[in-house]
Amino acid sequence: MAIPEYIVGAGIAALLSLFGVAFRRLDTQDRRMDNLELKVAEQYVTKEEFNQRFTELFTVLHRMEDKIDYNADMAAKIVGKRGL
Prior knowledge:
By secondary structure, the protein is mostly helical.
């Protein structure tokens, strides 16, 4: 008993359409992954930049600490002169 040609054609078409759907899904996922990688790369901070920013932050903190120490010393001298 032979299988009619239209059934074979329909089977092949269905199989190829399944491959097409699978390929489109893979392509969509690949595009989404590319977009995610691009976003991560845009927002990524290099180790050198990170270290530079923290060096700048610690420089500012040291300056603030020096100012606080200076003001505390000045206040102690004023209080010492008043005899309080």
